[in-house]
């Protein structure tokens, strides 16, 4: 029987299609997590009130910030989940090597980020509808997509990039934990420890600076460069770490 | 042409060597039985051949390439084992579709016919199957993938006798129609020996024997008779197994290098010469002591 030759790109494509089906549970968890976030958003993210005489004005702000934050968390967790053994060995049933497995995971996470980012941004509409029907004493003042289409698109785009950044981070964290369970304790301890240390010292610490670096960038171009470079480095780290990993069932 | 060539292959888990200086050559288009006790290193060997694990030292070539992290080897090898864990989100029919997309020579018709024959339901999920049904489904994957090197590690575990027979027959028929290299590891040598061309016997991570199965049947001989006479006859022979049966009677298995005349005179001396079945011989060869489990109870 003659040998068949396959190309890496071809296998990555097939694995990606396979993963979209095989990992469909992650999209169900996306729906639940976004609905939960929508529910939390219904109290408004901020507001205030003034009253003078018999007139009282209450202002509440509603936004999809919660949904976006939850989606980032979802991206992070999803990326960790797909590095676990159960998912990793799914690849090895069929044709694969570690490079194709990692690359198809990356493509999968990218598509998951796109879906997560778009649905997160569109959830504003759901919030508006719910507020309109169930909190009827409100006068709703809202912008529509058509008022500022560019802002809306940039919003979607940057949400996607943020979710993807968290996916990349989760992928590296998951890979580290798969290499040694020590990291499952070490990484959260370092993160929380850093937060507490920053809090005690009262200065802007490392974690705050890192968050500031990514979340306060005002230039869109620079923001894109930052995110893509970081995500790229995180993925390269994960690829390098997992390239010699054995599969033990 | 050799499909698998390995020289001095060693694989250590911690301090324990699962494979210890293992060497073998597997020829193209042969069905080889990989036989050995539990823990002899069969699964480790197959996993290294399939590229799941990397050897600690030594040299291994599959299709003249190193199998670890190798896409070509992966595309041409299918490794079916009893701990396969297929994705839970897909039903059986979808799993077959996925397999079809990965393997270029996938035989859709064979897969479907086997699927129907073993009355698997398309909408069932893999984790809901019984152990025997899982093995049956794995077997369909292994056969229909139709790759140049097919590895079956304990393919029949959990299958009932009827399904096992069906599997052996299916394997043989598909092999005759599309010859390819197949390695089967199994505990049921007596069931698969008619299927095999070669046998590769492993013990403690090393190869013990690698020969055509037909030769194995002639390889050793059993002598039964009065202990004194049997001992005399087996003095300068390579003892493989000894057992006392009743007072003053013993059964000894030795390498069969008797000449025709020796054979005759042994008969006259009152020794029963019997062929040793392949599966018994493999048990004797791979046991740690010459007397088997009896030694544990014979405190002298």
UniProtKB/TrEMBL annotation, chain A:
What sections of the protein cross the membrane?
Answer: 20-42, 62-82, 103-132, 152-173, 182-200, 220-241
> In which organism is this protein found?
Neobacillus rhizosphaerae
Q: What is the lineage of its organism?
A: Bacteria, Bacillati, Bacillota, Bacilli, Bacillales
Q: Give the keywords, sorted.
A: Membrane, Transmembrane, Transmembrane helix
Q: What is this protein called?
A: ABC transporter permease
Top-level taxon: Bacteria
From TrEMBL, chain B:
InterPro entries in alphabetical order: AAA+_ATPase, ABC_transporter-like_ATP-bd, ABC_Transporter_VariousFunc, P-loop_NTPase
**ABC transporter domain sequence ranges:** 4-229
Q: Which UniProt keywords apply?
A: ATP-binding, Nucleotide-binding, Transport
Q: Which Pfam families does the annotation name?
A: ABC_tran
Which one of the record's GO molecular function terms can you name?
Answer: ATP binding
State the superkingdom: Bacteria
Ribonucleoprotein in keyword set: no
- Any keyword Electron transport? no
Can you name this protein?
Vitamin B12 import ATP-binding protein BtuD
- Please tell me the species this chain comes from: Neobacillus rhizosphaerae
Q: Lineage, please?
A: Bacteria, Bacillati, Bacillota, Bacilli, Bacillales
Question: Gene of origin?
Answer: btuD_9
């Amino acid at each position: 029987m003659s040998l068949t030759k396959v190309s890496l790109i071809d296998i990555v494509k097939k694995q990606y299609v396979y993963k979209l089906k095989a990992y469909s549970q992650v999209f169900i968890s996306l729906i639940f997590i976004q609905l939960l976030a929508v529910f939390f958003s219904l109290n408004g993210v901020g507001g205030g009130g003034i009253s003078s005489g018999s007139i009282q004005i209450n202002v509440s702000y509603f936004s999809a910030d919660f949904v976006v934050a939850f989606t980032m968390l979802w991206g992070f967790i999803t990326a960790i989940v797909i590095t676990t053994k159960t998912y990793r060995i799914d690849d090895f049933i069929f044709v694969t090597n570690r490079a194709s497995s990692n690359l198809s995971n990356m493509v999968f996470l990218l598509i998951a980020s796109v879906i997560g980012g778009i649905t997160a941004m569109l959830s504003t509409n759901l919030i508006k509808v719910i507020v309109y029907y169930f909190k009827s004493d409100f006068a709703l003042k809202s912008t529509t997509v058509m008022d500022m289409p560019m802002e809306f698109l940039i919003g979607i785009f940057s949400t996607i990039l943020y979710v993807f950044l968290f996916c990349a981070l989760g992928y590296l964290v998951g890979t580290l934990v798969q290499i040694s369970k020590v990291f499952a304790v070490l990484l959260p301890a370092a993160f929380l420890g850093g937060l507490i240390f920053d809090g005690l010292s009262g200065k802007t610490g490392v974690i705050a600076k890192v968050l500031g670096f990514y979340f306060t960038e005002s230039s869109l171009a620079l923001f894109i460069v930052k995110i893509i470079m970081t995500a790229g480095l995180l993925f390269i780290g994960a690829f390098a770490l997992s390239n010699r990993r054995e599969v033990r069932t | 042409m050799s499909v698998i060539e390995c020289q001095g292959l060693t694989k250590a888990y911690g301090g324990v060597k699962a494979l210890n200086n293992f060497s073998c050559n597997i020829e193209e288009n042969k069905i080889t039985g990989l036989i050995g006790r539990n823990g002899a290193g069969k699964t480790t060997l197959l996993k290294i051949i399939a590229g799941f694990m990397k050897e600690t030292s030594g040299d291994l070539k599959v299709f003249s390439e190193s199998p670890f992290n190798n896409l070509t080897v992966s595309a041409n090898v299918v490794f079916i084992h009893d701990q396969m864990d297929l994705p839970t989100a897909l039903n059986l029919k979808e799993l077959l579709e996925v397999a079809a997309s990965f393997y270029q020579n996938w035989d859709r018709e064979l897969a479907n016919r086997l699927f129907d024959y073993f009355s698997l339901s398309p909408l069932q999920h893999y984790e809901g199957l019984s152990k025997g049904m899982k093995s049956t489904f794995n077997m369909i994957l292994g056969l229909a993938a139709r790759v140049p090197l097919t590895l079956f590690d304990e393919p029949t575990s959990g299958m009932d006798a009827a399904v096992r027979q069906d599997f052996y027959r299916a394997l043989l028929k598909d092999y005759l129609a599309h010859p390819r290299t197949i390695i089967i590891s199994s505990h049921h040598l007596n069931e698969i020996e008619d299927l095999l061309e070669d046998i590769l016997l492993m013990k403690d991570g090393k190869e013990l024997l690698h020969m055509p199965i037909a030769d194995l049947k002639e390889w050793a001989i059993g002598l039964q008779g009065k202990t004194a006479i049997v001992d005399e006859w087996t003095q300068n022979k390579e003892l493989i197994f000894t057992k006392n049966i009743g007072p003053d009677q013993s059964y000894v298995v030795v390498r069969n290098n008797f000449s025709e005349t020796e054979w005759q005179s042994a008969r006259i001396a009152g020794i029963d010469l019997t062929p040793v079945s392949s599966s018994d011989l493999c048990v004797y060869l791979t046991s740690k002591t010459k007397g088997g489990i009896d030694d544990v109870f014979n405190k002298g």
